[in-house]
Design brief:
homodimer, alpha+beta, four-stranded mixed beta sheet, DNA-binding
DNA sequence: GTCCCTGCAAACTATTTGCACCGGG
DNA sequence: CCCGGTGCAAATAGTTTGCAGGGAC
């Protein structure tokens, strides 16, 4: 459901191409590890943690270590293909650049469920505000923390495990 | 210039009162250290880091340690008088609750200058979006990263030291 | 007098770095 | 071949915690 036919491996190829172009331009090398990590990252589509990515990469190439994942993710961030997100306290999450440019986040404080949304109206207004201060906006983060429908249903208690239910809230969701 | 006569010690008293009320309600004690830290925190008005606060507190009461600052800030966060902000990578910054409820942030990626803004329109729209997903928003963070007027003026280069110039951008600014 | 609070230092967690060896171009 | 990349383990940075003694109520 999460990796359905939105735009599957279609533009993943394109992203990999951009990544390779960046490596070449910088005189850096394309290695098996970097490819696996980047590929898994682009394919994941949503929010991924270093740990997730390490696990995914190791599934395909068991020799990769933490450091390489960090280093590769830093490269991806440098060339604008990935963006760091620090939601709660815990781990840093990464998402693909396309996402970071066009989606804001709704985060459930009970269960950690993350949903992405987009509002042209907000986008426009924040541009207007920034301009009024003479700022030139490059990127932004907009996160709304609150209770998701399920957490509200069981008000007071903690949110039921979402893993089983899947992604029935209308958006692209993932858990921290 | 940064701690000018916006609203000096005026409502700081009120905030201290709220803090003490919380302590009492929880059966906790009011100590010299907590008072100094809270007072410095409220007086600072803008964004403060743990380090800043430790320095400020030590100026008045040299015996305070890191741990106490962390613990006190956690208390302040619990009772809603402080809010954590993680802008860039480095340290966590704290701001007073009033701010966190009503201000969003414009952050210069060149010089780290932080400016607060508020837009009812954005506020309203984000509420609407959240409701459409069944979310009940408790708090939010909204940060626009870009180039401040000065950084744009010296396009390409790095932003001039802001310390000297003070706060001429029309908002309440501070540096990380 | 009873707990809570404090400072110190050690513990922890997430991330980064040094180094010897491996591998891409 | 050369130089950058990799894995490992050690180092770091920010934050938390355990503990013995001090202070608020």
């Amino acid at each position: 459901m999460l990796e359905a036919d939105d735009s599957p491996a279609t533009n993943v190829d394109g992203l990999m191409g951009q990544f390779h172009a960046y490596l070449t331009k910088k005189g850096l090398k394309s290695t098996r590890q970097r490819d696996v990590i980047a590929l898994k990252f682009f394919s994941a589509g949503g929010h991924v943690s270093i740990e997730d990515l390490l696990a995914l990469a190791r599934a395909e190439y068991p020799r990769v270590g933490y450091a390489t994942v960090y280093r590769t993710l830093k490269l991806l961030t440098e060339c604008g293909l990935a963006a760091e997100r620090r939601f709660g306290e815990g781990h840093t999450m990464y998402e693909t650049a396309g996402d970071s440019a066009h989606h804001d986040h709704l985060i459930c404080v009970e269960c950690g469920f993350v949903l992405e949304f987009h509002s042209e109206e907000i986008e426009r207004e924040q541009e207007r505000v920034a301009r009024s201060f003479g700022f030139n906006v490059i990127r932004h983060r907009h996160e709304l923390y609150g209770l998701c429908p399920r957490a509200r249903g069981i008000k007071g208690g903690s949110c039921p495990r979402l893993e089983g239910g899947g992604d029935a809230d209308g958006g692209r969701g993932s858990r921290q």
